[in-house]
Amino acid sequence: MTPVETKSLYQRLGGFDGITRIVHDVMDAHLSNPLVAPRFQASEDLDHAKQMAVEFFCAGCGGPEAYTGRDLLVAHKGMNISEQEYMAAMDDILGALRKNDIDDATRGEVTAILYSLKGQIIRV
Fold first, then answer.
1. 11-120 — its CATH code?
2. Which of 14, 72, 84, 90 is 20 to 30 A from residue 120's alpha carbon, by CA?
3. Which residues bind heme per the record (predicted)?
4. Residue 24 marked as a ligand binder
5. pLDDT values of the chain reduced to their tens digit, one per residue, 124 residues
6. In this structure, are residues 36 and 85 in contact, taking their beta carbons and an 8 Å threshold?
7. This prediction's pTM
8. pLDDT of residue 84
9. Which letter, b or e, does each residue of 73-100 get, where b requires 16 or more Cβ atoms within 10 Å of its Cβ?
10. Per-residue model confidence (pLDDT) at position 103
11. What is the DSSP string of 29-97?
């Protein structure tokens, strides 16, 4: 096995600090992305959204942090998020991963995980 394969996804994303940087970069990208910016600009508590995203990514990637937010389906129910918005958000996430020097294999793994969750986000 190569060193990348022996590290958990959490470790490959930089642990809590790395994931926090990535999430902040994603949120910054969302706020400047015309397809999704209105949803994030309308957020009553962007800091809370960032905290929930950090917890979600940490817990979902094998970190010791607990996720204290609502499940994805409940959190996105009634938002009527389109496929185009979902893809724009995915592009922002991939851009943040590249900005933080996350390797191709790890970016691919994150992409696969996020695509597996789209049924709980798009048009629910």
1. 1.10.490.10
2. 14
3. 76
4. no
5. 555 568 999 999 999 999 999 999 999 999 999 999 998 887 778 899 999 999 999 999 999 999 999 999 999 999 999 999 999 999 999 999 999 999 999 999 999 999 999 999 999 9
6. yes
7. 0.90
8. 97
9. eeebeeeebeeebbebbeebbbebbeee
10. 97
11. HHHH-TTTHHHHHT-S-HHHHHHHHHHHHHHHTT-SPPP-S--HHHHHTTS-B-HHHHHHHHHHHHHHH
Could you tell me which of 91, 75, 65 has the C-alpha nearest to residue 13?
A: 65
Judge contact between 82 and 39, C-beta under 8 A. no
Q: 40, 44, 47, 42: which is closest to 92 by C-alpha?
A: 40
Task: Give whole-number Cα distances, 24 to 1, 34, 48, 74, 78, in Å.
Answer: 32, 18, 12, 23, 25
Token pair in block for residue 44: 């009553």
